[in-house]
Automatic annotation (TrEMBL):
PROSITE patterns: PAC, PAS, SIGMA54_INTERACT_1, SIGMA54_INTERACT_2, SIGMA54_INTERACT_3, SIGMA54_INTERACT_4. Keywords: ATP-binding, Coiled coil, DNA-binding, Nucleotide-binding, Transcription, Transcription regulation. Residues 238-290 form the PAC domain. Pfam families: AAA_lid_14, PAS_9, Sigma54_activat. Residues 281-312 form a coiled coil. SMART domains: AAA (SM00382), PAS (SM00091). This is Sigma 54-interacting transcriptional regulator. The keyword rRNA-binding does not apply. The lineage of its organism: Bacteria, Pseudomonadati, Pseudomonadota, Gammaproteobacteria, Cellvibrionales.
Length: 645
């Protein structure tokens, strides 16, 4: 039973194989005939043979074999005999006539043993057809090599990629290659990371269009201007810093890159671009820059603050106790105490040298702003063209000479007090600008567009009758009312004679400390003398007389013989000419003499009615003596004649 089954299985296996062979024979693409050479008959033909001879299978079996190869019968016989003898034979060009048309066949003949005789398998190929196919193949080959340049480029890059694979994979820099048309040939993993594209997405695309199409500001980046593509034209390495490539997500990536042309046998075939993502570096640089800017601004501000503070330290006004027991002074002190804790604007009015600045400082010192500076602006000393810059600051390049940003006084006084001395001297056309800041506490630096907010308390002072100026039209009424919120009047010395002894003691202490002549006293009788002198208003006159006598005094008692003469003649300050003076005394005398001259000329050194003219010496000589003796002529200027500091 088992054997029978195996047998059946073997039979069916053989049958199925026969079927396959038969199908292979029948459907083979070349024409095939099985010929019995002895019987000169066609035993079988396949479909291609039937197509070749334009005959059906039956018709082919009816014709003799020699009939099919009529024009080349002799060659057919030779071919058949060779196959019968050798097992196979070949003829490259055997002519046959089909439908009165001669065609040439390439024939392979194989002898097969069948049923105790030899039969022949003819495989026939139409030579024309073959030729045609060969030509097609050649053309194809030619086409392939016509794409040769591309293939060559690809090969160059493939070689590059293969040879440098390890480096490309490991490199932290993005690396990609482009051919001379800017088409991407490869890209390494770092480039994929940086740009967010996979290599397959960019391979074969125009790299410039994909990642280098726009500048940072969004404007079109013409490929003609692209340094990467430029490398193809000039053949040199191009290194570019701080450019942008565009990532897949549309974000700009700041890059530094080098584009190196690649040559094959001296011909440029493309370029390899090595780039580094410098986004973080640029962000850090920008942070650093803005930090430095901030530091620079703070430094400027601190320097200015320092300058002001130094000015204050040097200033005699640093001793701002208000001395006096008179009703007038008591009244002023009471007003100061009332207004200081508020932020109200104060307008101090009074003659020159009657303590207006002293009052302003006292208000600031007792206000909540005392740990921020009081910034003084002498409005009479600022040239009109610099007024805005002085008050509001400017930015670099705002005008000729604006070499760097400058902080204005409003900014500097932020959270502190701004003392507008000689406020009546502000030119009319600039008063509106000041008014705006006073109203809105906002301003812009000259040349800048950023609005700055400031928190400043204003104290203004003037020796002018502002209401009169308003009437004359040289002072804005709205500004006057804005300033005159809390008026305080300083009192001239002539109206506070009772304060003279106290003031005299105060100035004596100050002068003797300065000149290191301690232990000096003013006798009561001399205090009476001082009280009896008809003082004008400026307290500096009393201060100067005392300083002069401190310098001249040889004992410990101060006397003021000059007062009488001053009263009588209002000239010749020093009466010590008959005294014998030692070197130091002479120097003191010289100093005193200069002080008197300066006082008389209200600090004017040069020119007509100047101290030099009065003393009969050259202004330059006086100038250098003043410097040597550390005298500040500004101290003697009446404010109305004071000009640029
Ligand atoms: N009550 C006072 N007690 C002590 N010193 C005073 C007093 N009043 C004025 N002085 C002194 O007189 C001098 C002039 O004062 P101050 O500069 O404040 O006057 P001013 O009115 O602002 O002068 P100017 O109008 O010239 O600017 C200073 O040395 C100041 O110390």
């Amino acid at each position: 039973m088992q054997t029978a089954i195996n047998h059946d299985y073997a039979d069916s296996e053989i049958n199925s194989r026969h079927n396959i062979y038969e199908q292979l024979f029948l459907q083979a693409c070349h024409a095939q005939l099985i010929i019995d050479p002895l019987a000169n008959s066609v035993l079988s033909s396949n479909q291609s043979a039937q197509t070749l001879f334009h005959l059906t299978a039956e018709a082919l079996q009816k014709v003799s074999a020699s009939q099919l190869f009529t024009p080349s019968l002799g060659e057919l016989i030779v071919l058949s005999e060779e196959a019968l003898a050798e097992g196979h034979a070949w003829n490259g060009a055997l002519a046959v006539a089909i439908n009165h048309q001669e065609i040439t066949l390439e024939i392979t003949v194989t002898a097969i043993e069948y049923d105790q005789r030899k039969i022949l398998l003819f495989v026939l190929i139409d030579s024309n057809d073959l030729q045609h196919k060969r030509e097609n193949s050649d053309a194809n080959q030619h086409y392939q090599s016509g794409m040769g340049h591309w293939n060559k480029v690809t090969r160059v890059f493939q070689e590059f990629e293969r040879e440098n694979q390890l480096i490309l994979d490991a490199a932290g820099e993005g690396i990609y290659g482009v051919d001379v048309n800017g088409i991407t040939t490869f890209m390494n993993p770092a480039a994929e990371n940086i740009l967010g594209y996979r290599a397959e997405e960019l391979a074969g695309t125009d790299m410039h269009k994909m990642i280098h199409h726009s500048h940072l500001d969004g404007s079109h980046f013409d490929s003609c201007d692209c340094p990467i593509l430029e490398a193809f034209r000039d053949g040199v390495v191009h290194t570019v810093e701080k450019d942008v490539f565009w990532s897949k997500s549309g974000q700009p990536v700041y890059v530094d890159y080098t584009s190196t042309p690649i040559k094959d046998n001296g011909v440029i075939v493309g370029a390899v671009i090595v780039f580094r993502d410098v986004t973080q570096k640029i962000a850090d640089e920008q942070k650093l820059l803005s930090a430095l800017n901030e530091v620079e601004q703070l430094k400027n501000r601190l320097e200015l603050e320092k300058a002001y503070l130094q000015e204050e330290i040097k200033s005699e006004f640093n001793h701002h106790q208000i001395i006096g027991n008179s009703t007038a002074i008591k009244d002023i002190i009471q007003k100061i105490q009332m207004v200081a804790p508020t932020d109200a604007t104060v307008l101090i009015h009074g003659e020159s040298g009657t303590g207006k600045e002293l009052i302003a400082r006292a208000i600031h010192e007792t206000s909540r702003r005392c740990d921020r500076p009081l910034i003084r602006v002498n409005c009479a000393a600022i040239p009109a063209e610099l007024f805005e810059s002085e008050f509001f600051g400017h930015i670099k390049g705002a005008f000729t000479g604006a070499a760097s940003d400058r902080t204005g006084r409003f900014e500097l006084a932020d959270k502190g007090t701004l003392f507008l001395d000689e406020v009546g001297e502000i030119p009319l056309h600039l008063q509106s600008k000041l008014l705006r800041v006073l109203q809105e506490q906002q301003f812009e630096r000259v040349g800048g567009s950023k609005t700055h907010t400031t928190d400043v308390r204003i104290i203004a002072a003037t020796n002018k009758d502002l209401l009169e100026k308003v009437r004359q039209g040289s002072f804005r009424e709205d500004l006057y009312f804005r300033l005159n919120v809390f008026p305080i009047s300083s009192v001239p010395l002539r109206q506070r004679i009772d304060d003279i002894p106290l003031l005299a003691q105060h100035f004596l202490k100050r002068s003797s400390t300065r000149t290191n002549k301690l232990g000096l006293k003013i006798p009561l009788s001399e205090l009476e003398n001082l009280k009896n002198y008809s003082w004008p208003g400026n307290i500096r006159e009393l201060e100067n007389i005392i300083e002069r006598q401190v310098i001249l005094s040889q004992g410990e008692k101060l006397r003021f013989p000059e007062l009488k003469h001053m009263e009588e003649t209002s000239t010749k300050p020093a009466q010590a000419v008959n005294q014998l003076l030692n070197e130091n005394q002479f120097k003191d005398y010289q100093r005193s003499n200069i002080l008197s001259a300066l006082e008389k000329c209200q600090g004017k050194v040069f020119g007509h009615n100047g101290a030099a003219e009065l003393l009969g010496i050259k202004p330059t000589t006086l100038s250098s003596r003043i410097k040597k003796l550390k005298i500040d002529p500004k101290k003697f200027r009446s404010t109305s004649t004071e000009h640029h500091d």
